[in-house]
Fold:
Amino acid sequence: MRKRGNDGQSIPWFNNQSEGVNLITGNTTPSAFRAVNITAQQPVTDGNLTKVSYPNEEFDIGNVYSPNVSTFIPQVNGIYSITGSVFFIPANAAINHRISVFILVNNVERARVDSFFVGGIAGGVNHTASVNTILQLQASDQVEVFVLARGVSGIIQIDDEGTHFEAARVSSPTT
Structure:
């Protein structure tokens, strides 16, 4: 697709580079992070809402993540894509159970996923549950990930592929 410039010339609306097509988005303050837990297993008690710990930063563009409290605090108003994931190992894999993962903004639930697991299935003892959303956030909002196990206690395993928290600012006309 092409658009017309002021002089009537046809110009591409995208920047075509060898690695793909990147939309021209104008001035956007970069903001993104990814954090994992490769430090210590975290216990989760049946029926207790637990804040998930992600103490290991892989990157933090814009200084928006606090690993000591596992909290994302955007510095700029905008639209953000957010993912929270846990790799859960139940204490008793023979019991049916549910794992819920929540994204809270300023202590208010904004997104959640409920994953149900049938006990006693061979090879089905390790579970990854992930919640994803796109939210409009204000600078200084506090974004956190929580987990709730129902039917069984267990641990959040140290694993950089299954236990991770990340967010990135998405360019939009309103940001």
Notes: DSSP finds no helices and 17 strands in the chain. The two ends are 24 Å apart (CA to CA).
